[in-house]
Amino acid sequence: MCGALFKKLKLKTTIVRAWTRDEENMSDHDEIKFNLVEREDYTLVQFDLENIISPDSLKSLAPPKVDGRKGVVLSGRGPIWLYCYLTHFYHPTKFIAVYDPRISGGVIVESHTPNHSVGDVIKVDIE
Amino acid sequence: MCGALFKKLKLKTTIVRAWTRDEENMSDHDEIKFNLVEREDYTLVQFDLENIISPDSLKSLAPPKVDGRKGVVLSGRGPIWLYCYLTHFYHPTKFIAVYDPRISGGVIVESHTPNHSVGDVIKVDIE
């Protein structure tokens, strides 16, 4: 039962595209693709930049909403300021972790639950 | 008068070393050097890692306090999760920007003042 539920959660993914405010003038440069993967304890927020983004992109970025009762793990190749922006954006969640491919885990950078402490590394399944 | 004050502010720097909780067992691996530079509108928080740090370092890190009536600009070479940790740590300030050497400016990632919007790039003097 739990196994089936876990499998279901693991397989549920959502792909969201975030554009600039003026979609008619959208260029590929402004596009960030988000992919949500639901895990039992957290939502994996993966992003993919099709091109280099400019700081200006942050002005109109609308990252996908997540369930604040779970944590968020951020993953993707992008500028540090995008990660910092997303850290603040997902502040109202249980915890925030940053996936580090060098250690194959998510580093907790902010926590509002006694189950995870800042500096802990959690196992993250990246597809 | 203002010029002299600005010059004074520009020149005021503070160097702070942050160690792990157990300083007796401190190794070079755990050391992060912080350097604060006071500017009129923000505090430049520069960090320098003498060695590679582990996520565990975050557990005992005590970054220097800053004046919350000003913004913070983060600068240094380090892992993304350190930047995300610092973004949350300096949340109770006017704004937070990340210095990006590729654009020679600070990208605002979080703002609590109408003077700066997220996505704006501010001029940052890096010494």
Written description of the protein model:
Two copies of one chain form a homodimer. By secondary structure, the first copy, chain A, is α/β, with parallel strands linked by helices. Chain A contains two helices and seven strands. Chain A has a seven-stranded mixed beta sheet. The A-B interface holds A 55-59, 74, 79-81, 83-85, 87-88, 91, 96-98, 100, 103, 107-110, 117-121 and B 55-59, 74, 79-81, 83-85, 87-88, 91, 96-98, 100, 103, 107-110, 117-121.
Write the layout of secondary structure elements.
Two copies of one chain form a homodimer.
Chain A: H1 2-11, E1 13-18, E2 32-38, E3 42-49, E4 71-76, H2 80-89, E5 95-100, E6 105-111, E7 121-123
Keywords:
127 residues; seven-stranded mixed beta sheet; 2 helices; 16% helix
Largest interface summary: A-B, 29 and 29 residues
Residues in helix, % of chain A: 10-25%
Task: Summarize the biggest pleated sheet of chain A.
Answer: 7 strands, mixed
Number of extended strands of chain A: 7
**What class, by secondary structure content of chain A?**
alpha/beta
Give the ordered list of helices and strands of chain A.
HEEEEHEEE
How many angstroms does the end-to-end distance of chain A come to?
Answer: 23 Å
Q: What's the pLDDT, averaged over the residues of chain A? A: 84
Quaternary organisation: homodimer
> What is the general shape of chain A?
globular
| Rg on CA atoms of chain A, Å | 15 Å
